[in-house]
Amino acid sequence: MAEHAPDSVVIVGGGLAGAKAAEALRDQGYGGPVTILAAEDELPYERPPLSKGYLAGKDEFDKALVHPESWYAEHDVELRRATEVTAIDRAVHEVELADGSRVPYGVLILATGAEPRALPLPGADTALTLRTHADSDRIRATFGEGRRLVVVGAGWIGLEVAAAARGAGTDIVVLEAGEQPLLAVLGPEMGEVFATLHRDHGVDLRLGAKLAEITGSGVRLDDGEEIPADAVVVGVGVRPRTELAEAAGLEVDNGVLVDGSLRTSDPDIFAVGDIANHDHPVLGHRVRVEHWANALNQPATAVAALLGGEAAYDRLPYFFSDQYDLGMEYVGHATRDETARVVVRGDVGKREFVAFWLDAGDRILAAMNVNVWDVPDQVRPLILARTAVDPDKLADPDTAYSDVAR
Fold first, then answer.
1. Do 69 and 140 fall within a single domain?
2. In whole angstroms, what is the distance from residue 360 CA to residue 340 CA?
3. Does the predicted model carry a pTM greater than 0.85?
4. For the segment 20-29, what is each residue's pLDDT rounded down to a tens digit?
5. What's the domain range around 58?
Protein backbone atom coordinates (compact mmCIF):
# COMPACT_ATOMS: atom_id res chain seq x y z
CA MET A 1 0.00 0.00 0.00
CA ALA A 2 1.18 3.50 -0.80
CA GLU A 3 3.00 5.38 1.96
CA HIS A 4 0.43 8.17 2.04
CA ALA A 5 -2.67 6.02 1.60
CA PRO A 6 -5.83 7.35 3.29
CA ASP A 7 -7.11 5.74 6.47
CA SER A 8 -10.43 4.92 4.73
CA VAL A 9 -12.15 5.31 1.37
CA VAL A 10 -15.87 5.89 0.98
CA ILE A 11 -17.50 5.56 -2.45
CA VAL A 12 -20.83 7.32 -3.02
CA GLY A 13 -22.66 5.49 -5.77
CA GLY A 14 -23.34 1.81 -6.31
CA GLY A 15 -23.17 1.51 -10.08
CA LEU A 16 -20.38 0.29 -12.34
CA ALA A 17 -18.05 3.18 -11.47
CA GLY A 18 -18.49 2.67 -7.74
CA ALA A 19 -17.90 -1.07 -7.91
CA LYS A 20 -14.85 -0.65 -10.16
CA ALA A 21 -13.42 1.90 -7.71
CA ALA A 22 -13.64 -0.67 -4.93
CA GLU A 23 -12.07 -3.29 -7.18
CA ALA A 24 -9.23 -0.95 -8.14
CA LEU A 25 -8.49 -0.16 -4.51
CA ARG A 26 -7.99 -3.82 -3.72
CA ASP A 27 -6.17 -4.57 -6.97
CA GLN A 28 -3.73 -1.71 -6.29
CA GLY A 29 -2.95 -2.96 -2.81
CA TYR A 30 -5.05 -0.72 -0.61
CA GLY A 31 -5.76 -2.57 2.62
CA GLY A 32 -7.81 0.00 4.52
CA PRO A 33 -11.59 0.15 4.98
CA VAL A 34 -13.61 0.52 1.78
CA THR A 35 -17.32 1.36 1.91
CA ILE A 36 -19.76 1.67 -1.00
CA LEU A 37 -22.90 3.67 -0.27
CA ALA A 38 -25.43 2.62 -2.92
CA ALA A 39 -28.79 4.33 -3.32
CA GLU A 40 -30.34 1.34 -5.11
CA ASP A 41 -31.21 -1.83 -3.22
CA GLU A 42 -29.31 -3.92 -5.77
CA LEU A 43 -25.85 -5.30 -6.30
CA PRO A 44 -23.85 -2.92 -8.54
CA TYR A 45 -24.62 -3.58 -12.20
CA GLU A 46 -23.76 -2.33 -15.66
CA ARG A 47 -26.39 -0.25 -17.43
CA PRO A 48 -25.88 -0.95 -21.18
CA PRO A 49 -27.78 -4.29 -21.01
CA LEU A 50 -30.85 -2.41 -19.72
CA SER A 51 -31.42 -1.02 -23.23
CA LYS A 52 -29.80 -3.88 -25.16
CA GLY A 53 -29.69 -7.61 -24.41
CA TYR A 54 -31.66 -7.59 -21.16
CA LEU A 55 -34.39 -5.30 -22.49
CA ALA A 56 -34.69 -7.48 -25.58
CA GLY A 57 -35.13 -10.57 -23.42
CA LYS A 58 -31.93 -12.18 -24.74
CA ASP A 59 -29.81 -11.99 -21.57
CA GLU A 60 -30.41 -12.68 -17.90
CA PHE A 61 -29.94 -9.77 -15.52
CA ASP A 62 -27.20 -11.58 -13.60
CA LYS A 63 -24.94 -11.09 -16.62
CA ALA A 64 -25.06 -7.35 -15.93
CA LEU A 65 -23.72 -7.64 -12.35
CA VAL A 66 -20.26 -6.18 -11.88
CA HIS A 67 -19.40 -8.76 -9.22
CA PRO A 68 -21.32 -11.59 -7.55
CA GLU A 69 -22.53 -10.84 -4.04
CA SER A 70 -19.78 -12.97 -2.52
CA TRP A 71 -17.07 -10.76 -4.03
CA TYR A 72 -17.71 -7.88 -1.61
CA ALA A 73 -17.24 -9.99 1.52
CA GLU A 74 -14.27 -11.82 0.02
CA HIS A 75 -12.54 -8.50 -0.68
CA ASP A 76 -13.57 -6.88 2.61
CA VAL A 77 -15.68 -4.22 0.89
CA GLU A 78 -18.68 -2.98 2.87
CA LEU A 79 -21.57 -2.59 0.44
CA ARG A 80 -24.44 -0.67 2.01
CA ARG A 81 -27.45 -0.89 -0.28
CA ALA A 82 -30.57 1.32 -0.23
CA THR A 83 -28.45 3.98 1.46
CA GLU A 84 -28.99 7.60 0.48
CA VAL A 85 -26.24 10.14 1.07
CA THR A 86 -27.73 13.56 1.79
CA ALA A 87 -24.67 15.73 2.47
CA ILE A 88 -20.88 15.90 2.46
CA ASP A 89 -19.20 17.60 5.40
CA ARG A 90 -15.77 18.42 4.01
CA ALA A 91 -14.59 20.14 7.19
CA VAL A 92 -14.76 16.96 9.27
CA HIS A 93 -14.45 14.42 6.40
CA GLU A 94 -17.86 12.82 6.88
CA VAL A 95 -20.91 12.09 4.75
CA GLU A 96 -24.39 12.31 6.19
CA LEU A 97 -27.04 9.70 5.40
CA ALA A 98 -30.81 10.06 5.10
CA ASP A 99 -31.29 8.49 8.54
CA GLY A 100 -29.11 11.18 10.12
CA SER A 101 -26.11 8.96 10.73
CA ARG A 102 -22.64 9.87 9.53
CA VAL A 103 -19.83 7.92 7.86
CA PRO A 104 -16.26 9.22 8.12
CA TYR A 105 -13.89 9.13 5.16
CA GLY A 106 -10.22 9.69 4.50
CA VAL A 107 -10.82 10.04 0.78
CA LEU A 108 -14.20 10.26 -0.92
CA ILE A 109 -14.98 9.02 -4.43
CA LEU A 110 -18.15 10.42 -6.00
CA ALA A 111 -19.76 8.06 -8.52
CA THR A 112 -23.33 9.31 -8.35
CA GLY A 113 -24.03 8.93 -12.07
CA ALA A 114 -26.82 10.65 -13.93
CA GLU A 115 -30.59 10.66 -14.13
CA PRO A 116 -33.00 10.99 -17.08
CA ARG A 117 -33.98 14.50 -18.07
CA ALA A 118 -37.64 15.33 -17.61
CA LEU A 119 -39.77 17.01 -20.26
CA PRO A 120 -41.36 20.29 -19.14
CA LEU A 121 -44.74 19.22 -20.52
CA PRO A 122 -48.15 18.31 -19.11
CA GLY A 123 -48.32 14.62 -18.28
CA ALA A 124 -44.56 14.08 -18.45
CA ASP A 125 -44.59 12.45 -15.03
CA THR A 126 -46.69 9.59 -16.42
CA ALA A 127 -44.07 8.58 -19.00
CA LEU A 128 -41.53 5.80 -18.56
CA THR A 129 -37.81 6.50 -18.50
CA LEU A 130 -34.85 4.13 -18.58
CA ARG A 131 -32.07 4.21 -16.00
CA THR A 132 -32.52 1.31 -13.58
CA HIS A 133 -33.17 -2.41 -13.59
CA ALA A 134 -36.76 -1.74 -12.53
CA ASP A 135 -37.17 0.80 -15.35
CA SER A 136 -36.06 -1.77 -17.91
CA ASP A 137 -38.55 -4.30 -16.53
CA ARG A 138 -41.39 -1.77 -16.72
CA ILE A 139 -40.59 -0.90 -20.32
CA ARG A 140 -40.22 -4.52 -21.41
CA ALA A 141 -43.65 -5.27 -19.91
CA THR A 142 -45.18 -2.92 -22.51
CA PHE A 143 -43.80 -4.89 -25.48
CA GLY A 144 -45.73 -7.32 -27.62
CA GLU A 145 -47.79 -7.94 -30.73
CA GLY A 146 -50.78 -5.64 -31.00
CA ARG A 147 -49.26 -3.04 -28.68
CA ARG A 148 -48.02 0.42 -29.56
CA LEU A 149 -45.21 2.30 -27.88
CA VAL A 150 -44.33 5.95 -28.43
CA VAL A 151 -40.68 6.80 -27.85
CA VAL A 152 -39.84 10.47 -27.39
CA GLY A 153 -36.26 11.18 -28.42
CA ALA A 154 -34.08 9.52 -31.07
CA GLY A 155 -30.85 9.40 -29.12
CA TRP A 156 -29.05 6.18 -28.25
CA ILE A 157 -31.48 5.15 -25.50
CA GLY A 158 -34.58 5.95 -27.55
CA LEU A 159 -33.34 4.07 -30.60
CA GLU A 160 -32.19 1.05 -28.60
CA VAL A 161 -35.57 0.88 -26.86
CA ALA A 162 -37.29 1.12 -30.25
CA ALA A 163 -35.15 -1.71 -31.64
CA ALA A 164 -35.84 -3.97 -28.67
CA ALA A 165 -39.56 -3.24 -28.83
CA ARG A 166 -39.74 -3.90 -32.58
CA GLY A 167 -37.94 -7.18 -31.99
CA ALA A 168 -40.85 -8.17 -29.76
CA GLY A 169 -43.41 -7.21 -32.42
CA THR A 170 -44.43 -3.90 -30.88
CA ASP A 171 -45.67 -1.06 -33.11
CA ILE A 172 -43.32 1.89 -32.59
CA VAL A 173 -43.60 5.62 -33.15
CA VAL A 174 -40.41 7.59 -32.49
CA LEU A 175 -40.77 11.35 -32.10
CA GLU A 176 -37.61 13.41 -32.59
CA ALA A 177 -37.49 17.20 -32.51
CA GLY A 178 -34.30 17.36 -34.60
CA GLU A 179 -33.86 16.91 -38.33
CA GLN A 180 -32.17 13.52 -37.87
CA PRO A 181 -31.62 10.99 -35.09
CA LEU A 182 -28.41 11.39 -33.10
CA LEU A 183 -27.80 14.75 -34.71
CA ALA A 184 -25.71 16.24 -31.91
CA VAL A 185 -23.41 13.21 -31.80
CA LEU A 186 -23.14 12.07 -35.42
CA GLY A 187 -24.33 14.97 -37.56
CA PRO A 188 -26.91 14.77 -40.38
CA GLU A 189 -25.09 12.38 -42.75
CA MET A 190 -24.60 9.59 -40.21
CA GLY A 191 -27.89 10.40 -38.50
CA GLU A 192 -29.60 9.47 -41.76
CA VAL A 193 -28.08 5.97 -41.53
CA PHE A 194 -29.97 5.35 -38.31
CA ALA A 195 -33.16 6.97 -39.61
CA THR A 196 -33.14 4.58 -42.58
CA LEU A 197 -32.29 1.61 -40.36
CA HIS A 198 -35.32 2.12 -38.14
CA ARG A 199 -37.71 2.88 -40.97
CA ASP A 200 -36.52 -0.29 -42.72
CA HIS A 201 -37.57 -2.18 -39.61
CA GLY A 202 -41.06 -0.70 -39.53
CA VAL A 203 -40.60 2.19 -37.12
CA ASP A 204 -42.77 5.26 -37.70
CA LEU A 205 -39.98 7.81 -37.24
CA ARG A 206 -41.18 11.40 -37.18
CA LEU A 207 -38.50 14.06 -37.40
CA GLY A 208 -39.09 17.69 -36.47
CA ALA A 209 -41.89 16.51 -34.17
CA LYS A 210 -43.06 18.96 -31.53
CA LEU A 211 -44.69 17.37 -28.52
CA ALA A 212 -47.34 19.30 -26.59
CA GLU A 213 -48.63 16.82 -24.02
CA ILE A 214 -48.39 13.26 -22.79
CA THR A 215 -51.94 12.13 -22.24
CA GLY A 216 -53.35 9.12 -20.48
CA SER A 217 -53.78 7.37 -23.83
CA GLY A 218 -50.70 8.49 -25.77
CA VAL A 219 -49.32 11.86 -26.84
CA ARG A 220 -50.57 15.04 -28.47
CA LEU A 221 -48.40 17.02 -30.88
CA ASP A 222 -48.39 20.80 -31.06
CA ASP A 223 -50.40 20.69 -34.31
CA GLY A 224 -53.20 18.92 -32.44
CA GLU A 225 -52.56 15.40 -33.77
CA GLU A 226 -53.06 12.71 -31.15
CA ILE A 227 -51.04 9.51 -31.33
CA PRO A 228 -52.53 6.69 -29.28
CA ALA A 229 -50.18 4.42 -27.38
CA ASP A 230 -50.21 1.79 -24.67
CA ALA A 231 -47.16 3.45 -23.12
CA VAL A 232 -44.78 6.37 -23.68
CA VAL A 233 -41.01 6.21 -23.10
CA VAL A 234 -39.07 9.46 -22.85
CA GLY A 235 -35.38 9.33 -23.71
CA VAL A 236 -34.14 12.90 -24.12
CA GLY A 237 -30.80 12.58 -22.39
CA VAL A 238 -29.61 12.64 -18.81
CA ARG A 239 -28.31 15.17 -16.34
CA PRO A 240 -25.37 14.50 -14.00
CA ARG A 241 -26.27 14.06 -10.34
CA THR A 242 -24.16 16.86 -8.93
CA GLU A 243 -26.38 18.07 -6.09
CA LEU A 244 -24.14 16.63 -3.35
CA ALA A 245 -21.05 18.15 -4.90
CA GLU A 246 -22.69 21.56 -5.36
CA ALA A 247 -23.99 21.67 -1.81
CA ALA A 248 -20.53 20.75 -0.54
CA GLY A 249 -18.99 23.68 -2.41
CA LEU A 250 -17.06 21.70 -5.01
CA GLU A 251 -16.49 23.32 -8.39
CA VAL A 252 -19.32 22.24 -10.70
CA ASP A 253 -19.99 23.13 -14.32
CA ASN A 254 -21.76 20.55 -16.51
CA GLY A 255 -20.65 17.93 -14.01
CA VAL A 256 -18.08 17.97 -11.25
CA LEU A 257 -14.88 19.61 -12.46
CA VAL A 258 -11.92 17.27 -12.11
CA ASP A 259 -8.30 17.42 -13.21
CA GLY A 260 -6.49 14.86 -15.32
CA SER A 261 -6.33 12.43 -12.40
CA LEU A 262 -10.07 12.81 -11.63
CA ARG A 263 -9.42 14.88 -8.49
CA THR A 264 -11.99 17.58 -7.68
CA SER A 265 -11.35 21.05 -6.27
CA ASP A 266 -11.06 19.30 -2.88
CA PRO A 267 -7.86 17.21 -2.86
CA ASP A 268 -9.54 14.49 -0.79
CA ILE A 269 -12.51 14.04 -3.12
CA PHE A 270 -12.48 12.40 -6.57
CA ALA A 271 -15.29 12.07 -9.12
CA VAL A 272 -15.64 9.35 -11.76
CA GLY A 273 -18.12 8.26 -14.40
CA ASP A 274 -21.04 10.29 -15.71
CA ILE A 275 -20.55 13.20 -13.31
CA ALA A 276 -16.86 13.81 -14.04
CA ASN A 277 -16.14 16.84 -16.26
CA HIS A 278 -12.60 15.83 -16.99
CA ASP A 279 -9.64 17.95 -18.08
CA HIS A 280 -8.54 15.50 -20.77
CA PRO A 281 -4.75 15.52 -21.26
CA VAL A 282 -4.94 14.26 -24.86
CA LEU A 283 -7.97 16.09 -26.23
CA GLY A 284 -6.73 19.32 -24.69
CA HIS A 285 -10.09 20.41 -23.33
CA ARG A 286 -12.70 19.35 -20.82
CA VAL A 287 -15.04 16.53 -21.70
CA ARG A 288 -17.89 14.84 -19.87
CA VAL A 289 -19.31 11.78 -21.59
CA GLU A 290 -22.02 9.48 -20.27
CA HIS A 291 -20.61 6.21 -21.53
CA TRP A 292 -19.93 2.82 -20.04
CA ALA A 293 -16.20 2.97 -20.84
CA ASN A 294 -15.60 5.93 -18.52
CA ALA A 295 -17.39 4.25 -15.63
CA LEU A 296 -15.37 1.11 -16.32
CA ASN A 297 -11.92 2.67 -16.65
CA GLN A 298 -11.77 5.99 -14.81
CA PRO A 299 -11.83 4.53 -11.28
CA ALA A 300 -8.42 2.85 -11.67
CA THR A 301 -6.84 6.22 -12.50
CA ALA A 302 -8.53 7.94 -9.55
CA VAL A 303 -7.38 5.18 -7.21
CA ALA A 304 -3.79 5.38 -8.46
CA ALA A 305 -3.84 9.13 -7.79
CA LEU A 306 -5.41 8.90 -4.35
CA LEU A 307 -2.78 6.35 -3.37
CA GLY A 308 -0.10 8.90 -4.21
CA GLY A 309 0.87 7.91 -7.72
CA GLU A 310 1.26 9.98 -10.86
CA ALA A 311 -1.88 9.22 -12.84
CA ALA A 312 -3.78 10.77 -15.71
CA TYR A 313 -6.89 9.48 -17.45
CA ASP A 314 -5.93 9.73 -21.11
CA ARG A 315 -8.20 7.14 -22.75
CA LEU A 316 -10.23 8.34 -25.69
CA PRO A 317 -14.00 8.25 -25.24
CA TYR A 318 -15.56 5.02 -26.51
CA PHE A 319 -19.09 3.68 -26.78
CA PHE A 320 -21.06 1.07 -28.67
CA SER A 321 -24.62 0.33 -29.72
CA ASP A 322 -26.56 -2.65 -31.05
CA GLN A 323 -29.77 -2.07 -32.99
CA TYR A 324 -31.40 -4.85 -35.05
CA ASP A 325 -28.62 -6.23 -37.27
CA LEU A 326 -26.45 -3.16 -36.85
CA GLY A 327 -23.56 -3.12 -34.44
CA MET A 328 -21.36 -0.06 -34.05
CA GLU A 329 -18.45 1.29 -32.06
CA TYR A 330 -17.35 4.91 -31.75
CA VAL A 331 -13.98 6.11 -30.53
CA GLY A 332 -12.77 9.68 -30.09
CA HIS A 333 -14.68 12.90 -29.58
CA ALA A 334 -16.00 15.13 -32.36
CA THR A 335 -18.33 18.08 -32.04
CA ARG A 336 -20.19 19.66 -34.93
CA ASP A 337 -18.19 22.87 -34.38
CA GLU A 338 -14.89 21.01 -34.78
CA THR A 339 -15.87 18.78 -37.69
CA ALA A 340 -15.00 20.00 -41.17
CA ARG A 341 -16.09 16.86 -43.01
CA VAL A 342 -16.98 13.19 -42.69
CA VAL A 343 -15.00 10.64 -44.70
CA VAL A 344 -16.44 7.17 -45.24
CA ARG A 345 -14.57 3.92 -45.94
CA GLY A 346 -16.88 1.13 -47.07
CA ASP A 347 -20.50 0.80 -48.13
CA VAL A 348 -23.03 2.94 -46.29
CA GLY A 349 -25.93 1.37 -48.22
CA LYS A 350 -25.00 -2.09 -46.95
CA ARG A 351 -24.33 -0.66 -43.48
CA GLU A 352 -20.77 -1.96 -43.56
CA PHE A 353 -18.44 1.00 -43.24
CA VAL A 354 -16.23 3.19 -41.09
CA ALA A 355 -16.96 6.91 -40.79
CA PHE A 356 -14.25 9.37 -39.80
CA TRP A 357 -14.79 12.89 -38.52
CA LEU A 358 -12.00 15.23 -39.63
CA ASP A 359 -11.20 18.75 -38.52
CA ALA A 360 -10.17 21.58 -40.83
CA GLY A 361 -6.57 20.35 -40.79
CA ASP A 362 -7.60 16.83 -41.87
CA ARG A 363 -6.83 15.42 -38.44
CA ILE A 364 -9.07 12.59 -37.28
CA LEU A 365 -11.26 13.55 -34.33
CA ALA A 366 -13.34 10.36 -34.10
CA ALA A 367 -14.29 7.21 -35.95
CA MET A 368 -17.38 5.00 -36.01
CA ASN A 369 -17.27 1.46 -37.36
CA VAL A 370 -20.58 -0.07 -38.41
CA ASN A 371 -20.72 -3.86 -38.90
CA VAL A 372 -16.96 -3.77 -39.51
CA TRP A 373 -14.81 -5.00 -36.65
CA ASP A 374 -11.33 -4.70 -35.15
CA VAL A 375 -11.28 -1.00 -36.02
CA PRO A 376 -10.90 1.02 -32.76
CA ASP A 377 -7.46 -0.37 -31.94
CA GLN A 378 -6.26 0.57 -35.43
CA VAL A 379 -7.61 4.12 -35.48
CA ARG A 380 -6.86 5.16 -31.89
CA PRO A 381 -3.18 5.85 -32.78
CA LEU A 382 -4.31 8.04 -35.68
CA ILE A 383 -6.53 10.11 -33.40
CA LEU A 384 -3.87 10.37 -30.70
CA ALA A 385 -1.15 11.35 -33.19
CA ARG A 386 -3.08 14.53 -34.14
CA THR A 387 -1.37 14.51 -37.54
CA ALA A 388 -3.04 15.19 -40.89
CA VAL A 389 -4.23 12.28 -43.03
CA ASP A 390 -4.91 11.96 -46.74
CA PRO A 391 -8.73 11.77 -46.98
CA ASP A 392 -8.59 9.78 -50.22
CA LYS A 393 -6.34 7.13 -48.68
CA LEU A 394 -8.50 7.10 -45.56
CA ALA A 395 -11.55 6.34 -47.70
CA ASP A 396 -9.78 3.54 -49.59
CA PRO A 397 -10.43 0.10 -48.04
CA ASP A 398 -7.28 -1.22 -49.69
CA THR A 399 -5.03 1.28 -47.92
CA ALA A 400 -3.78 0.19 -44.51
CA TYR A 401 -4.53 2.57 -41.65
CA SER A 402 -0.81 2.84 -41.01
CA ASP A 403 -0.38 4.36 -44.49
CA VAL A 404 -3.05 7.10 -44.45
CA ALA A 405 -0.95 9.86 -42.90
CA ARG A 406 0.22 12.64 -45.20
1. no
2. 5
3. yes
4. 999 999 999 9
5. 9-115+238-306
